[in-house]
Structures
1.
Amino acid sequence: MIASHQLVPDTSMGDLYYWRGSTKGGFSIKYALQLIRTDVDGISEAKWDLAWKVPIQQRVKVFLWLILHNRILCNANRVRRNLSQDPRCPRCGCEEETTIHLLCDCPYAKQIWLSVGGSALYSSFFTGDITSWICINLQANGLTHCDKWPTCFAITLWWIWKWRNCCIFNRTHDIPLHTGTFIRSQVEDTWNAINNALNVQQNMIRIPQMINVRWIAPFDECFVLNTDGASKGTLGTAGGGGVIRDNRGIFYKGFSAHFGVCSAYRAELKAVAIGLDLAQEMDIQRLEIQMDNKACIEVLNNPDFQGGECYHIVRHCRKLIHRTNWTIHLKHCYREGNRVADKLANIGVAHLDSIILYNNPPVAIKSLLREDLEGVTTPRLVT
Ligand SMILES: [Zn+2]
């Protein structure tokens, strides 16, 4: 771990804030959600997944989310928020209209459930606390019902709430006479609409195609630096490698480096930095950098990127890239077109020297260099 961190004697650079949730240091909703999910207790996690995945309209999902947070304004919750002083159920007069009472235990709610049928006909249906009751019904296993039940269950919850409000606001004429028939037709409509949308989506999915990938020399007369980083595991023993060739594919220099323990992302960036130093020593005027890691190319190309634990490496690379006395072009390539650098990176993982420079190609990459020269291709499945 220590071997992968270099002390940077750069006094022009002060301390930096960056978002710890992602490797690159940039904020994203995806990583924020990941952090939130790892911070809360693991027990209640399944319920969010269940509520999110049930085939249902978005507004009903939001309603489920409110129920699971105990946020719907039943009378017990209104009293708790000082919005009312009467916690009783407006329909049956029960002492406290809690969420579970409103949606499950109230005789009016029970009547609706029984009219819907399905799993609601089983006596065990009206048991349990609100979270487990909702979770059991949102997953299709363990109960005797068709796979439409979670949709039916969520829609029934939605209409029980709607009709309860109709009662309060004197709009009982909005409540259908045959609640069960009404809900079942809503379930059918929702089910068909969602499945049609899914079919359209599936038809739009692009069919994977097999392409042949090879190392591609730049068209112009310039040198090519292929680099790659390798890490065994998410945070494992890592190394980097790189090779500098001319646009005919003739080998000039190469290196393999051992980075200790670090992420593949850090290893990729460290490999580019070494490659750039090497190219600078060779006094190259025009250089194309080829690497198979899109995230690194994005970070190196983005002048607004200012964070992340690898920022000092990015900064070092950028300084070199923007040097005035050479022209550098960064290009993404597929891994299959970056095999020499990949091989050298793996050599770097295995050896103990921090860096080995090659003036002549090591035996391990000779055949790969020849294949690149001859334009040998490797198949790759792309979508
Ligand atoms: Zn009631």
2.
Amino acid sequence: MACRACPRLVRHREEVARRKARAFRNETYWGKPVPGFGDPEAWLFLVGLAPAAHGANRTGRPFTGDGPRGAGDFLMAALHRAGLANRPFSRLADDGLALSGVYLSAICRCAPPKNRPTPAEVRNCLPFLVEELRIVRPRVVLCLGGLAFSWTLRALEALGEALPRPRPKFRHGLRLDLPAATLLASYHPSRQNTQTGRLTPAMLDAVLAEALQAQAPLPAQRAEGGTPTGRRGTRGRSSRPRGGPRPEAGSGPPPS
Ligand code: SF4
């Protein structure tokens, strides 16, 4: 993936990769757009904000390399407790992390200065998110943070999803049962949130429990012994269309 559509972000991601942090001065930074990662047949699709300068922009994998007690470890520990990840940390692209039924994505694929992409930059990047959602067809979409929430609504709208009017506002724990998928919202697991207690492990566990509950077939489907198929989004993995293009799941960079 060699997109250079956002000059400010291209400059920043490459400059960070050249200068490096002292702790990582002997590493080769990824320094490019960070592709999604996880299970290409995921039922749960997580949407974050953007790669961290010395985290995903270094390792080339979302939520990876933010350091102990960083966002990646906080998230992966929760996924591990929920039985959705094979280890409770995310440090390097070759650390053996495997996600089961989960896919990680973001509204912006390049590390922005001060972790803040501009609306124009997110708009440039949105087609990548739309395409991943179209291919993965998740049953549940979990947005991490307010920006991820509002831009994911736009992505779902671009896919033809019928959204409530007025548009719902972000709040932690929000659940929206849309025709094709359930949308959940959580605070982002950034240090700013987790080290101030705004987001605790128990709060994220509760959101993941809600996701697991939303993933289950509806009572009517269980009675019929089947799963309905929709325009997109499925009520169970057995109804997911096969074939066609796949996202670059798990296709991180070479080990750094
Ligand atoms: S943020 Fe997205 S659109 Fe902008 S340069 Fe990176 S990959 Fe391209």
3.
Amino acid sequence: MENQEAQETDSVDATVDSTDDSTLTILFFADCVGQPGRQALSQLVREMREKHRADMVIANVENAAGGFGVTPEMSRKIFKYGVDVQTSGNHIWDRMDIQDYIRKERRLLRPANYPSSAPGNGSYVFQLPDCKVAVLNLMGRTFMNMALDCPFRTADGELSMLNSETDIIIVDFHAEATSEKQAIAHYLDGRVTAVLGTHTHVQTADEKVSEAGTAYIGDAGMTGPHDSALGMRFEAAVGRFMTGLPKKFTCASEDIKACGVILKINRHDGRARSIERFRVDFDPSNSNSTV
Ligand SMILES: [Fe+2]
Ligand SMILES: [Fe+2]
């Protein structure tokens, strides 16, 4: 784990670290891509949970199945690795069998602003021994080319329900446009604990905690093979850009990293105290995981 130490030293703590009994620690793992991403989760969730004494782990799993969706079996395994709530995005429907599963498994979320006829839910309230944490999944509309309801108004509706349960609300905002991510973070400022961007797979260096106690990062990054085009082998990506023809994307395998953020939160009022990026190397040859 020497690499992990080195990587974490490079990360930035946006505010003063203050860990005491009132501090709740949540780990968020960004988009898990393919077998390499799942293998990284199978080992690093447990290790980082212990190292950071995390109370809860959230992971975005929309690309866990070879880059395209997540299967029920994979989702079940990811819960066993120590992930408490799974979020997703535009790839959630790529595997047909996820529809039945997501109807029953409330801890796997799809964006809340899909039409109400879509199976599953966009939020979940996770019960910890002495507090509750709500996770809300929303998707942006700019450059996403999807028939989605307004994420801003959907957030209003969801918060009116979630606020009766808890002040600790973590939002995974799955979106392409940084401007839309910044806009919704402003719209929700002081109303939620964190707005964490996902979908672009490239971690941004813009993490902060607002005066009102809302943590933000434009994109938390990717858990998967980083020697790639967003987790996919370069050949198909280059070919598609050069010819405009469809190409079969396959998952890359080199330079595996887990990316995400560590949130420290005042468990009594739901205000974020700090947000810290992580970008941890994972060496599958040193792993006894058989994912
Ligand atoms: Fe993704
Ligand atoms: Fe996505």
